[in-house]
Amino acid sequence: MNNADKAMVNGDEAHTPPEEAESKQDGNDVTDAGEESNEQEVIVIQDTGFTVKIQAPGTEPFDLQVSPQEMVQEIHQVLMDREDTCHRTCFSLQLDGNVLDNFAELKSIEGLQEGSLLKVVEEPYTVREARIHVRHIRDLLKSLDPSDAYNGVDCNSLSFLSIFTDGDLGDSGKRKKRGNELEQIDCTPPEHILPGSKDRPLVPLQPQNKDWKPMQCLKVLTMSGWNPPPGNRKMHGDLMYLYIVTVEERHVSVTASTRGFYLNQSTTYTFNPKPANPSFLSHSLVELLSQISPAFKKNFTALQKKRVQRHPFERIATPFQVYSWTAPQVDHAMDCVRAEDAYTSRLGYEEHIPGQTRDWNEELQTTRELPRKNLPERLLRERAIFKVHSDFAAAATRGAMAVIDGNVMAINPGEETRMQMFIWNNIFFSLGFDVRDHYRELGGDAAAHAAPTNDLNGVRAYGAVDVEGLYTLGTVVVDYRGYRVTAQSIIPGILEREQEQSVIYGSIDFGKTVVSHNKYLELLDKTSRPLKVQKHHVLNEKNECVELCSSVECKGIIGNDGRHYILDLLRTFPPDLNFLMVDGEELPLESQRQGFPRQHRHRLACLRQELIEAFVEHRYLLFMKMAALQLMQQKAIKDTKTDTSAITDNGECKGPLASKEFEESIPGLAQAKELAETLVAEDGSCIDAKSQEVVLNACKAVGSISNTCFDIRFNPDIFSPGVRFPNNTADEVLKEKQLLKDAAAFLVSCQVPLLVKDCLDHSALPMDGVTLTEALHQRGINVRYLGSVLEFVEKTPAKAQLEHIYRIGISELITRCAKHIFKTYLQGVELSALSAAVSHFLNCFLSSFPDAVAHLPPDELVSRRKSRKRRNRVPGSGDNTVWAMWTRLWRNMDLFKYNFDSRHKPAFTEEDILNIFPVVKHVNPKASDAFHFFQSGQAKVQQGFLKEGCELINEALNLFNNVYGAMHVEICACLRLLARLNYIMGDHPEALSNQQKAVLMSERVLGIEHPNTIQEYMHLALYCFANGQLSTALKLLYRARYLLLLVSGEDHPEMALLDSNIGLVLHGVMEYDLSLRFLENALTINKKYHGPRSLKVALSHHLVARVYESKAEFRSALQHEKEGYTIYKNQMGETHEKTKESSEYLKYLTQQAVALQRTMNEIYKNGSNASIMPLKFTAPSMASVLEQLNIINGIIFIPLSQKDLENLKAEVQRRQQQQELGKIEEPAADGLLELEDKIPVD
C-alpha cells in the first residue's frame, strides 16, 4: 500500500468505520488494493479514440474524433450542435448503406474503424420528430438569450466571465497584444470599488453582454390555429402547421409534412393547405426560411457563429437548477414552445421516454440494484443514480410549484387545504402541516415543518451507507410561497391498502404500537455501525419486548415489487438534549453554564451526523490514551513492583487525558499506544487476562457498548415521548442517556470553541451566511446554535479579530428570523396580491420609510392577512445576503439604486418583485471512486509528489466527468486544484485554461456571487498575469472586489488578500498612487485581523515600501520597511533569511535616500547648472511582481537542484515511515505548497 493511501486511511484505520470497511471489501478500492488494479481498470474505461469521416448533405466531409464507449446517439448530438449541421434533427447515420442503431455503442458496430465514412441521411418526419425539430430550431434562435437563466428554467444559469476576459483567454477568441505595451492598459477601477467607497450599486452585478443584444431572425414562430390537421390532410402526410412572421413583415403559413417543410396557402382566417407556388419544400425549417427571408439567412448564420464561439461551459445545462436573486426587466417575447410546455406541462410526452410518465420509484431503485463489482460497473451505476436523481429533483420542483399554485387536483379534495395530498407525474406531494394531530406532542406545526428536512437527512445517511436490499424513497423538500412541500416517490401498492396493514416494522403512532421483522433487523443491522445506531428493545402496547435497530418512527414496508423499503427516517440521529427539556434530567455542567437546556419550538431537534462522527473520533482517542496509560502502569508495576493510582474515568474534553502536555510528559507513551492498538485490533478474543482488563476499563470509561473493543453507538429512542423500555435494560438505558448528555456537552465545550479557533487562525473563512452555515455544519453544529456561537465570539479575548464572523452571524440571525415571519405572512396572501405583499414586507424589513403601507391597485382584492398565529419555522437553506431571501429584486435600469435611507418614499415597489423561486433540498449522490482518486491526489501533492498528484487528479477529473457529466461542484474543485498544479509546475497556459473552466463552472453551478466564485476569479487573475495578460488580470480582480464588497463588505480578512493582489498588479503597470490606496487598505485590514505582530503584516509593510521606493519617497519607504524588519526580527530572529533580506533592503533604501538628498542639495546650491548624478528609479520588473503575487497567494517556489529534490523526497518518505511507526509525535514538515482545496461535503 503506498504512502499517499496510507496517509489517507491512517487516521481511521484502527477503528475503520464500517462504511469504509464495507467499501473496502468491494474489491478494487483505491485505499486498499493499491494503485495497480486501479490503473488497469481505468485503462479499461479509456480505450483509445479513433477518427471517422462524416458526410452530411450539402457540406464537405469532416473528421470527427470518437471513442469506442460512445453511443451512436452522441454523434447525433455533436452534429446537432455543429455550426454547419446544427439545423438537422431528423436523420440517420449510415455505414456502407446500413443504418446504425442510435443506442448501440460504437465498439459493437461491425466494420466501423479508423477512417470509416459515415453518411448523414435525411429521414421522413413523424409528428414527434417535427415537434423536436421546431423545438430545436427555437433553441438555436434563443441560444444567446439569457432570459431562461434569469427565469430559472431548464437548468440554465448565468455566467459573466466572458465579458471581463473579452474572449482573450488561452487560444480561443480574439488574441490581444501581449501586455508589454503598458500604455494601452486602462487601469482605472470603477469609482464604487475603490477602498473606502460607500456606494454599492447593483447594476454591475449583471453586466450587459453585448452579444446578448438580440439579433432578430424572425418576428414570430408559433403553432398555427389550424392544428391539428384534419383527417383528409393527415392522409396527405400533413403533421402540423406553423405560423411565421419574418423580419421583413412577411406573414407565411408553413406545413410540416413527412417529407419536410413547405409554404401552404392558408391565411389567418382561411384554411387552404395546398402548397404555395413556389412551395420551397425543404427538409429543414432553416433551409426553408433562408430561402424566403434574406434577413433570416444573414442573422441566423451570424448567430450560430457567435453561439459556437461561446465556451461550452456557458451553454451546458447544470445538473440542478440555480436561481438568481436579481434580474433586469426583460421584455416578454412570444414563444410557441414555452407556451406549449406551460399548458401540456410536458406530461403527455417527456421527450426521451416512450409511452407514459416516468415511474420514478422503479428508476430510482433499479439504478441502485445495478452491479458494482469493478470500476466500470460502479461508474455506470453511479452515473445512472446521479442522472435519475437530478431528473427527479427537477420534476419534483415543478410538481411542488404546480401544487402550491393550484394546478394539481388533490387526491382527497374534500378535506381542508392543509390536509390535502397530491399525486402528479408519479410523485406524491404532502404539505408541511400537522395533519390529524400527528405531531401534537412534538410541537405541532413546527415539528411537522422540521420533520421533512430531518427525514431527508436520514435518507441521505442511509443512501450513503448503501446496503444492498434496503431501499429508501426518492425525497425532495421544496419551500415555495411560504409552504413546505415534501415530494416522494411512491412505493408500489401502497395506495391500495391501509397503512396499518402495510407497516411490518416500526410504529405508526410514535411507539404506542410497535412491530418488528427479522429481515429488517438483518438489513438495518448492517447500517447500525456506520450510522452509530444501537440495537435496542422497546415495549409495545401489550408490554411485549420488541427488538429494533432504528428509531420507532422508522417504518418498514414491503412493496408489491418485493423490495424492503424504509421511510420516516426523521429520527435517524439521536436527539439534541441541549434543546430538549426533560423533567428530572440534569445536563453536564458545560451545557448548564451556557444556559442549556433551552426550550425549542419542537421536540425533533437532532444532533448532526458530523457531530456524531467527531464525538466518536474524540472518544476513540481518549480510549487509546487510557489503554496506553494502563499498559504503562502495568509495565511500571512489573519493573518496580510498586503500586500506582488507578486511572480516573473522565469522558469530557477538558479531562487531563486530553491535554497535550500530559501526553508528552510520559516517556514511552507512543510504544504503549502501539501495544494498545494491537490489543484493540485483536478483537479481544485471544489476549491475556491482564490486557483484557485494560481494554475493559478503557471501554467502560468512554461509554463503549462492547467490553472487548471500542464501539460507540446511540439509541435514537431515548427521551422519545411514548417510547417505553423493558425494566431489565434499565442500566443500559442509563448509560445511553449519559452518552447523549456527553455528546450534547461535547458540542458546546469542544466543537463551538474549535470553530472559533479555526476562524481565529483563518483556517475557516466564512464570507457570507451560506459559507458560515457550511462552516457550522462541517463541525456538527446546528444553525440553532448560532446565537450561542455569537455569544462565545463576544466573550473571546481576541474579539476584534472575529468581527467579520460576528457581523455575518448577526445578519444571518436577523435574516432567518425575518424568514420565519415572512413564511407565515406569505401563506395568508392570495396570488393577485403577491408582489405587493412581498415589496411591502421588504419595505417594513429594510427601508427607513416610517409608515410603510402596502399599496394595492383599487380594483384588486386587498389581501386579507389571516390572523393566524405566527408559527415559527426551522431554518432552511442559507441565504446569501440580507436581501437575497427568496425574492429577486431589481429596478429598471434607469432607477438602479435602492435607497434604504429615504424617509420620504419606500425602497421597493411591487414593480421590483419579478418572480418568486423555490428553495429546494435534495440528496446529492456522490462519485465514490473519483472522490478516492481526488483524495489520493491531494495526499500526494501535500507530500510534494506533484507529478503523481497531477496524474491522480486528472484521473479523478475523468471519473467525475463520467459520473456527473460536465458540470458539477466537485469537478470545479478538481479543475481548481489542477490549474494550481499546472501553474506550480510551470505550465501557465494550461493553468489558465483549467482555471477558466473552474470560474465558468463556479458561476454556473454555485452562482455568480458565491464566495467560491470570487476566489476562482482571484486565481484566474494570477494566472492571467503570469501569462502576460495584465489588463485582463486587473478586470478580473476588479470584478472579484466588486463581488466581495456586495457579499461581505470592505471589512473582511479576504479583502486584504484581494487588495494586495490588486495593489501589486497596479504597481507592475506603474500606477503607483492607485496601487498605494489598495496596498495600504490591505495593511490596515491585515493589522486588524492578524494582529500587528503577524508575518502577513510584515509582508504588507514590505509591499507598501516597494511602491514608495518606486515613487522615490524614500522616507515613507524606510518607515514601512523598518516596521516589517522589526516584526521579522522579533518573530524569526536575527539570523532568519527573511530578517536578513529585510535588513539588506533597508540598507539599499538608506543609500537611495542619501543619494537623493545629495542631489537635492546640489540643485539648491548650484541652481540649474548643477551636475546631477543619475538616480535609479526602478519600475518593478514583471518577474518581481509575479514573485510577490505568488507569495501572498500562498504559492511558494523553492529553487532546488535535482539533487536537493531527491534528498527532500527521501526526507519526506523517511518522516512518513517514522510517523507511521509512531516515533514522531509532531506532524511531518509541510509540503512544498499549501492547498486548502477540499471538495465541499454535503
From TrEMBL:
Superkingdom, natural source: Eukaryota
CDD domains: CLU-central (cd15466)
InterPro entries reported in the protein's UniProt record: CLU-central, CLU_dom, CLU_N, CLU_prot, GSKIP_dom_sf, TPR-like_helical_dom_sf
PROSITE patterns referenced in this protein's UniProt entry, alphabetically: CLU
Cellular component annotations (GO), alphabetically ordered: cytoplasm
Biological processes per GO annotation: intracellular distribution of mitochondria; mitochondrion organization
Gene3D superfamilies: Hypothetical protein (hspc210) (3.30.2280.10), Tetratricopeptide repeat domain (1.25.40.10)
Keyword annotations: Cytoplasm, Repeat, RNA-binding, TPR repeat
Region annotation (Disordered) ranges: 1-37
Stretches assigned to the Clu domain: 338-580
Compartments (UniProt record): Cytoplasm; Cytoplasmic granule
Primary location recorded for the protein, binned into one broad class: cytoplasm
Basic and acidic residues bias spans: 12-27
Molecular function in Gene Ontology: mRNA binding
Function as written in the Swiss-Prot or TrEMBL entry: mRNA-binding protein involved in proper cytoplasmic distribution of mitochondria. Specifically binds mRNAs of nuclear-encoded mitochondrial proteins in the cytoplasm and regulates transport or translation of these transcripts close to mitochondria, playing a role in mitochondrial biogenesis.
Family classification: Belongs to the CLU family.
Protein name as catalogued: Clustered mitochondria protein homolog
Organism listed in the record: Takifugu rubripes
